[in-house]
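We store chain and fold; example below:
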Amino acid sequence: MDPSQIKSDTKGILEPLFPDGVRSVFSESAPANVDRYPEEERFTGKMVERRLQEFQHGRLCARLALSMLGHPPGPIGRGKHREPLWPAGCIGSISHAGSHAAAAVAATDLFLGLGREMEFADPIEDSLIASICRTEEIDRLDDRADIGCRAKLLFSIKESIYKCLWPLIREFVDFTEIEVRLVDDSNQYEAIAHTAKCDAAPVDRLSGRYRRYGKLILASAYIAK
């Protein structure tokens, strides 16, 4: 499908989140007609309409991003852990938030891992903060009244980190097993592993960025070769 058929492809939204070599597509609303593939429909048979629209919208963004790498349109499968299955030689990440969808892809000869996340910026409920934030992440806050919003930012960043690490370690990493340190005034962060599920090497090499766009938090994580 031609990128011009996306109703609102806001250019330049994701580019600041990634280095050269990553191709990304951000869409605020899906077109009425989206290419469908039998290989994908077998994953969608029991989806409610809202979830089906999210799935198709995200796959559309992914196909458009892959086309920027020279790949022809085709199905994007799903693994047993619901992760997208990318064409040989590619790595990527898909995310959704309401009517928005986005995807980022890159060649595996340039990147070991690639993750991105998109969330609405409303605060995390107090009861969930301890399951997302480590004690040192909370202690670094200047204003404890801002803890719900900070937790949502860290949630978004940690989701992008998990997506980035998954192809390398194939292990679920809990939110509190990764520490995130925001780099002042740079919209970048550092990640520190507190788990034996992965050795420190991939996490030490991981870089990431984040930004606000309207009511959304956009976050990225990537490991370059």
The mean pLDDT is 89. DSSP finds five helices and ten strands in the chain.
